[in-house]
Amino acid sequence: MRKTGCFGLLIGLVLIAGLFWIARDWSGPGPSPKPLSVVVPAGASLARAAIELEKQGAIRSAQRFRGYARVFGSGTPIKAGEYAIPKGASAADILTLLEDGKVRQRLVPVPEGYPSIMVHEALMRAEGLRGDVAVPGEGSILPDSYAYQLNDTRAAVVARMQRAMSDYLAAAWKKREPGIAVSTPQEAVILASIVEKETSKPSERRMVAAVYTNRLKRGMPLQADPTVIYPITKGKPLGRRILRSELQAKNGYNTYASAGLPVGPIANPGRESIDAVLDPETSSALYFVADGTGGHVFADTLQQHNANVAKWYAIRRARGEM
Question: For residue 224, what pLDDT band results from cuts at 50, 70 and 90?
Fold first, then answer.
């Protein structure tokens, strides 16, 4: 009896140790010493996914992973896609990722006011995209962050960016206020791109749009510095002061040399700038200049504007900028 009891105790200890090992193998830290990226192809079975996970070093054994999944998993089919596997992720956590379809989120950010040449550069830098693509038409992209998956094409991402702009512009145009200075959606994009470049403060956009609306209605030149810079840099920062010769250049964009809108957009305007052009502030202002705080001060008359410019120059001299 004593031998039988000892044998039973031994079996019990072995079973406990086995269960403990299984629990640790399933729920304990995984073997990966660093984060991993694992792709589960479309239509892949759990067995194929397990083989890929083992090959990448995310799990210790594909065979044991499949066995654990049958016992501990929810039975939900796994989903295809690219998965970001954290360092040391357990087999249990990895199965949850695959069953929930929590694929890796890759993004191409397009900030408001980005020129298309910089959108193109961002697309070409984006890891995991394939194929070449031309620089998109200026003003055709709606600024936003665009998600993509591994091996998507750059052309497909651009198409989504442009569709987003077309859809937003069409909806915004239907809600435009009467009496605005633009007569087509394309003109709205052109003017919105100038508004976008002239102020970084959302609270000012409708007021800046009002100034340009008033100038257009009076036939006054817009005199917007960003339109002078655009032909030189294609929208990138100039990095120096504008030359007198550049202020006098006639190239279709220079709004000092010619009245009216430039021949095309100078950037990709965001939603708020488009909305501002289609519903500008009610104001008689015709001028604005920087106020030294990151914003602008507005004026109805040239006399008021000149006084504001003098204040701005005084601020710049005090800063050692002049």
Answer: very high
DSSP β-bridge partners for residue 38: 83
Q: Scanning the structure block, which residue is given the tokens 């501990």?
A: 72
Residue 17: what are its φ and ψ, rounded to 5°? -65, -40
- Give yes or no for a contact between 213 and 278, defined as CB atoms under 8 angstroms apart: no
**Rounded Cα–Cα distance for residues 253 and 255 (Å):** 6
Helix (H, G, I), strand (E, B) or coil at 39: strand
- Structure confidence by residue, pLDDT tens digits, 85-115: 899 999 888 988 888 888 888 999 999 999 9
φ/ψ of residue 195, rounded to 5: -55, -45
- Predicted confidence at residue 2, as pLDDT, reads 54
Is the whole-model pTM more than 0.85? no
Question: What are the residues facing 95 on neighbouring strands?
Answer: none
- Euclidean distance between CA atoms 237 and 233, whole angstroms: 7
Cβ-based neighbours of 91, under 8 Å, separated by 6 or more:
25, 26, 27, 30, 59, 60, 64, 65, 68
Partners of 147 in beta bridges: 107
Mean pLDDT of 230-242: 92
- How many separate helices (H) and strands (E) can be counted in the chain? 12, 6
At 288, phi and psi to the nearest 5?
Answer: -155, 155
Helix (H) or strand (E) holding 17: helix 2-27
Distance CA 17, CA 39 (A): 35
Burial environment of residue 14 by CB neighbours within 10 A (0 to 12, 13 to 18, 19 or more): exposed
Structure confidence at residue 23 (pLDDT): 61
Residues linked to residue 84 through DSSP beta bridges, in sequence order = 37
Q: Amino acid identity of 36?
A: L
- Is 182's pLDDT higher than 70? yes
Write the pLDDT tens digit of every residue in 160-174.
Answer: 999 999 999 999 999
Rounded Cα gap, residues 52 and 36, in angstroms: 12
Largest CA distance in the chain: 112
